[in-house]
Design a protein that fits this description.
alpha+beta; about 90 residues; 5 strands
């Protein structure tokens, strides 16, 4: 989920996010959803818990998420093994 994208997108449309951590990249297909508080739509998509991006989180400085013209950078300093734990938890039925 990306809370705020940009005004070039409209709610309830197919959209794609580009996510990267270090040199590892993933493309996430999803949809925009209304976000009246922000004035621009949000993005919702899914990524498999087995995607190599999760392993890359531990050794990367930042997680970069791009949806249309919006770019979000999430600092990952000090994440340690939490990325691997998160991925493992997502795989449980």
């Amino acid at each position: 989920m990306v809370g705020e994208t940009d005004a070039s997108l409209k709610p309830n449309e197919k959209a794609t996010a580009a996510i990267s951590a270090g040199s590892q990249k993933a493309t996430v297909r999803g949809r925009t959803v209304p976000n009246e508080l922000a004035g621009v739509p949000s993005f919702m998509g899914g990524l498999s818990a087995s995607d190599p991006l999760f392993a890359a989180l531990t050794g990367s400085d930042n997680l970069v998420i791009k949806v249309a013209k919006a770019r979000t950078v999430v600092p990952l300093k000090g994440i340690g093994s939490k990325a691997a734990d998160f991925s493992k938890t997502c795989r449980k039925p």
